[in-house]
Protein: Maleylpyruvate isomerase family mycothiol-dependent enzyme
Amino acid sequence: MHVSLDDQRSLAVLSDALDVLQRLVDPIDEPQLVLPTPCDEFDVRRLLGHLIGWQRVVAACAVGEAPPFADGSPTYRLRPGRAAADLRHASTALVASLVRATVIDLPYRGPTDRSIVLIEQVAEMVIHTWDLARALGEEAVFDERTVAVAHLGLTELLGESFAPMGFRAAHVGSGAPADLDGLIARSGRRPVDLNQT
Structure:
């Protein structure tokens, strides 16, 4: 299977972003699962369920399997004591499946080029890792290359592909800074959200 140089770079960036996320999740204990996050709809438990669930959906779609998806959402539910192991398994499967796919038939969008799915996944992982870090009173550190790819992915997420479904506005302002704070601001959060002591 041929993987373009751009997709190889995006796969490497996605792997790096997933490593940052995994390092935050590994030490999480059960009491931390109820902490609020800057993503208003999620506490830590629901955010982890969202991340792991969508990784499983995308991985299944990438290899042509029926995704674990029903009623517009992943069917995955986080079980006690399983966050780190389930994330590790889902992340490994996600990257492996994206290496093999060229077009991914997603349940919410239909056939989508791997290059788009890759950069959108980077954006999702970086932004939600930031959410998780804020909730835990930690810091998520990403290199410039990862943040740059996340900006590209967020542009896709905010763009035409989701606008007809009412998820997000079709137009994205281009004046936001290209650093992590700029990415967070573009996602609708404020870099000071949930500053914990």
